[in-house]
Amino acid sequence: MEFQFPRFNGEILGNQYRTTFVYEVDFVNTDFFREGDDHKVFENLFATFQNAEDSSRFRFLFGENTHILSHEDNLSSGNLTTINRSLILEELGTARNFGTQFGAQLQAAVTPKTQLQLSLQNNTGSLNTDNPKYNMLNDFAAKVTHILIENAPTREKLNFGLALDYTRDIGDKDFNLLSAINQTSLGSIRAAGGKFTLDANADYESLLFGRPYLVEFETIYSRYADSDLDAAGGYLQGQYSIFDSKMLGELVPFVRYDLVHVSADESATQQAIRSGINFNLPFTRKHVNLHFEYAKNMLSGSNRILTSGDRDSDEFAIMLRVSSTPYTRF
Questions:
Q1: From start to end of 179-287, where are the E strands?
Q2: Which residues pair with 172 in a beta bridge?
């Protein structure tokens, strides 16, 4: 929920700025119904000073909010194409290095097509973890996003983003390899010390046979200094809207490839092929979504990292999602 306060009105600021207060709670992914820790329900909890018309033009934020590094991390958790985010991102999360973090962020439009983001956040554990951290000087990140192509009549658009991040001390943790759907642990490797990360992402949207399609790409590389761990990975995903009407609903199949490679003294490679369908049910105005997803997990590498006896495994899931926010893909 977002509370928008009245615009400032004065000689210095004029009336183009306002403050807002935002919070988001999640009762499912935080195991609230089983554990009951009240503070762990918060996904976001922050206040802003921002442009009153368009926060992407200028926004200063303080509190708990998603880290700026990853494009996919900043997609709504309830409106993802897949059940979980990319393997590399979810596995960075096992070391508490993604998701909502405490601190401050600044974003501003440098040009109409270029946006700059800066953040000082903790990046070792947010409010919804067992041991939340609040040292906002523990992490520095910067990101530039640019629109390379924008053609409104043909709905053609190409975005590109590049980001870097340095987290001073993540402690001594395990970087866990997870299966794509059920997030079953498939192995682990030590992650310790300062972490340096680079992220690049791109997404291209256009029309094919009069219907929209979207191709997305993101890659992330992290280096953990004390454990000499290199963790690199990313995903490539495509989705296409077959039909979209009030009477029939909306049918959007997708296909996705995920890759993760970890190496220190030993190395391991993880791949996943994921495919499925998102079906917004008829007469629900895209508020009810039926999701089908299949994933094939493939592992190779050192037995000292991989704990799963079966190097290849299959997963399938069906999910019914209901939200006050419409499920939109394009």
A1: 185-192, 195-208, 211-224, 229-240, 243-245, 249-263, 267-280
A2: 192
Contacts of 269 by beta carbon, 8 Å cutoff, 6+ apart: 259, 260, 261, 299, 300, 301
H or E element at residue 180: none
pTM for this one?
0.92
| Structure token pair of residue 106 | 């600044």
Hey, what CATH topology would domain 2-322 get?
A: Porin (2.40.160)
**Residues 287 and 327 sit within 8 Å (Cβ to Cβ):** yes
Say if CB 153 and CB 122 are below 8 A apart.
no
Q: How far is Cα 120 from Cα 136, in angstroms, rounded to an integer?
A: 5
User: Nearest-CA neighbor of 98 among 149, 165, 148?
Assistant: 165
- Whole-number Å distance between alpha carbons of 103 and 44: 12
The tokens for 4 are 């928008």
Residue with tokens 């010390």: 193
Single-letter residue type at 240:
Y
Q: Give the DSSP H or E segment for 89.
A: helix 87-93
Give, in order, the Cα–Cα distances in Å from 263 to each of 5, 152, 194: 49, 44, 16
The DSSP code for 303 is T
The answer to whether residues 220 and 89 touch, using CB atoms and an 8 Å cutoff, is: yes
| Inter-residue contact 298 to 270 (CB < 8 Å) | yes
pLDDT digits (tens, 9 = 90+) for 61-119: 999 999 999 999 998 777 899 999 999 999 999 998 888 899 999 999 999 999 999 99
* Residue 100: closest CA among 64, 72, 138: 64
